[in-house]
Design brief:
alpha/beta; Metallo-beta-lactamase, Chain A; Ubiquitin-like (UB roll); 5-stranded mixed β-sheet; 26 strands; RNase_J_b_CASP; exonuclease
């Protein structure tokens, strides 16, 4: 989740503050960094610096900033995304300072510089941290892209002028991979060629924050005679903020999703969120025929212009199965590698970048152990010291003797539950144990009260995880009969009765009892 703290003479700054989606838990809650132990160490950051606008670098800011209330430094795009997040949470922000900077600024004894470094989102930066004794380069996420589509390629001379630095805290994500990462320009050409060969409607799913990819898709659609629609709140927000800052100027006009049914299939292209199989994202709703305005059909194509994040394989596999049942063709990176480019450096880029900076030491971060180990081996082959591989909670000292771990904090998993940051252990233990054994069933149920009684609105919004598939038609028929038999108009009583009766139905039909997550919404009288 990319929260790093740097301290010098009892003055602390924080760099990035991200989140992750826990798809192994019901309803995919957000997990945010555990900062509870910082106060016991006398640590309260006096500035938060954001390297770029990806969710795993800014997603927890609106949750954790109220503890710190310090100034936030960001480039204009990241600043715009943060303001949108604070507005969505309706936080009291009279003391909020989001300061947009181009390059240099200070905080106590730190002299700091944000330096452009290409990634898969515009305005991505590394951070140079200078104290009277040391110069540290915090790379953030990066790659060396000669054709980034949005923004300029990385300037070697800017980094060569900084050499040598004492320490690089560096991105390890693709360190095991030889060679050089693919350019966004290459992907743009591959997408345009692929789109030309598709028949029927096309849905392309990618990360909402990858504006270069979204721009490439818009251009490819226009050149292939297709109209573009966006699906997914995060993607709509990202494009709205980016356009307000002057990006995506040649992106084609958007078609409202409700108008797609009037267009011939070969003129439709949808760019959707949900590439990681998130059950509430736009693509999962399409795959399970739960979108109110748009349906996929046999002969349509879904293109995954993305890579599976480790841990999401089961969710993505479930999504593929749902799409296949609809007769939809699937194109993904495994079979069509040109359709995606990573935003992280492979070994050739690491060697080039470290040749510019000439670091004395490396601290490998952002990746699992095998990525950090490979990064360490690359550094050592260049004569760079890489004495340790950090883990979450490490308190690391840099001094004349080099790098050393002073202590390791015990961190708790903390999730967002009922609009608050809570320890994961606060979930009911019996429910968690049952979840592991029997899986879960999530049901969102919009109801309206008519003269004849309670009536379900729209399609069944049902998500089943870790258990046998339900016969949805049979369940929907039983549910409608059950609603018709409810004799109360009190919605709380309706929820209690439905919860009890649905659990009984699940026990009878599955021969075990998955955890039920029932969300009943009333839509008013008709």
């Amino acid at each position: 989740m990319n929260l790093t703290l740097y301290g010098y003479q009892d003055h602390w700054i924080a760099v990035d503050c991200g989140m992750m989606i826990r798809q192994d838990l019901p309803e995919g809650p957000l997990q945010v960094p555990d900062t509870e132990s910082l106060a016991s160490l006398g640590i309260c950051p006096e500035m938060l610096v954001i390297t770029h606008g990806h969710e795993d670098h800014i997603g927890a800011v609106a949750w954790l900033w109220p503890k710190w209330r310090c100034p936030i430094i960001a480039t204009p795009l990241a600043a715009g995304l943060l303001r949108a997040k604070f507005a969505e949470r309706e936080l009291e922000t009279s003391s909020l300072q989001i300061i947009e900077v181009d390059e240099g600024f200070e905080s106590g004894p730190f002299a700091l510089r944000l330096l452009p470094l290409t990634h898969s989102i515009p305005e991505s930066c590394s951070l140079l941290i200078v104290t009277p004794e040391y110069r540290v380069m915090h790379t953030g996420d990066w790659k060396l892209d000669p054709e980034p589509l949005i923004g300029e390629p990385t300037d070697p001379e800017r980094y060569q002028a900084l050499a040598p630095v004492d320490l690089v805290v560096g991105d390890s994500t693709n360190a095991p991979l030889p060679g050089h990462s693919r350019s966004e320009g290459e992907v743009a050409r591959a997408l345009e060629k692929t789109l030309a060969g598709c028949r029927g409607r096309v849905v392309v799913t990618c990360f909402a924050s990858n504006l270069a990819r979204i721009l490439a898709l818009g251009r490819a659609a226009a050149r292939n005679g297709r109209r573009v629609t966006l699906l997914g709140r995060s993607m709509e927000r990202m494009v709205r903020v980016a356009r307000g800052l002057g990006y995506l100027e040649d992106f084609p006009p958007l078609v409202p999703v409700k108008d797609l049914g009037y267009l011939p299939p070969e003129e439709v292209m949808v760019i959707a969120t949900g590439s990681q199989g998130e059950p509430r994202a736009a693509l999962s709703r399409l795959a399970n025929s739960r979108h109110p305005d748009f349906e996929l059909a046999a002969g349509d194509t879904v293109i995954f212009s993305s890579k599976a994040i480790p841990g999401n394989e089961l969710a993505i596999g479930k999504l593929h199965n749902a799409l296949t049942r609809l007769g939809v063709g699937i194109m993904e990176e495994k079979q069509f590698p040109d359709l995606h480019a990573s935003g992280h450096p492979a070994q050739e880029e690491l060697r080039t970048f470290y040749g510019w900076l000439k670091p004395t030491r490396l601290l490998p971060v952002h990746g699992e152990y095998r990525h950090q180990l490979a990064h360490t081996q690359v550094a050592q082959s260049l004569g760079i010291e890489a004495p340790l591989i950090p883990v979450n909670g490490d308190v690391i000292r840099l001094d004349a003797q080099g790098l050393s771990v002073e202590k390791r904090l015990t961190l708790q998993e903390r999730i967002i539950e009922h609009d608050k940051v809570r320890p994961l252990d606060s979930m009911d233990r019996r429910a968690r144990a049952r979840l592991g054994r029997h899986g879960s069933v999530s049901l969102a149920l919009p109801l309206t009260l008519q003269e004849a009684g309670w009536v379900r609105i729209g399609r069944l919004m049902l998500d089943v995880s870790g258990t046998a598939r339900l016969d949805e038609d049979s369940f929907a028929e039983w549910l409608d009969d059950t609603l018709a038999g409810l004799e109360t108009t009190d919605i709380d009583t309706v929820k209690q009765q439905l919860n009890s009766r649905i659990n009984r139905w699940l026990r009878n039909h599955l021969r075990h009892e998955p955890v039920l997550f029932l969300h009943v919404m009333t839509m008013g009288d008709s």
